[in-house]
Structure formats: structure tokens, C-alpha cells
Specification:
Layout lengths: L10 E7 L5 E9 L6 H4 E3 L15 H26 L2
Antiparallel strand pairs: 1-2, 2-3
């Protein structure tokens, strides 16, 4: 992954609403870790990352049991529906 502000977990993207009422990202945002006023914190999404950069990707381990629990709940619910329809 390229080290850009938009790929940093500390970067907050700015958005706008276009004429079709869709939310679209702008090319700027702010760094949550930088101190000072907004002018000093303002960053372009494609700026090269600073020394505070950290990846915003989640690892598979971070996602962990939550997905397994959700899939098990879905399976249980589907089984309930199937059993109900055949009774």
C-alpha cells in the first residue's frame, strides 16, 4: 500500500453533496493527530504521508470472530425459516 494521507488511519476525509444528491469525497481532509488550527491540519488526500502515518487496513485477525458469529446467526435464522415453512 502506498503511504498517502488517504490511506492513513488518522486522516479524516472531507465530502460534498453533488447535484444528484450523492455524497462524494473531495481531495482534502484533516489529520487527527496534527496539532494546530485547521489550516495546519488540512491535507490533500494524495499528499505523501508524514512520520505519523499508520495503515488504515484491518487485518483478518482484527475482523476475527465477529464475522464467524454473524455467519452462524445467519445460518441459524435460515434454518428457522426453512423449518417453519415445512411445519
Amino acid at each position: 500500500m502506498e503511504k498517502l494521507c488517504q490511506n492513513c488511519k488518522h486522516f479524516t476525509q472531507h465530502y460534498y453533496i453533488n447535484c444528484l444528491n450523492r455524497i462524494c469525497p473531495t481531495n482534502c481532509g484533516v489529520c487527527k493527530l496534527k496539532k494546530g488550527n485547521n489550516k495546519e491540519r488540512k491535507k490533500a488526500a494524495f499528499d505523501k504521508a508524514c512520520e505519523l502515518w499508520e495503515t488504515n487496513e484491518k487485518s483478518v485477525d482484527d475482523l476475527g470472530g465477529g464475522i464467524e458469529d454473524k455467519l452462524e446467526n445467519i445460518l441459524n435464522r435460515l434454518n428457522e425459516i426453512i423449518n417453519r415453512d415445512f411445519e
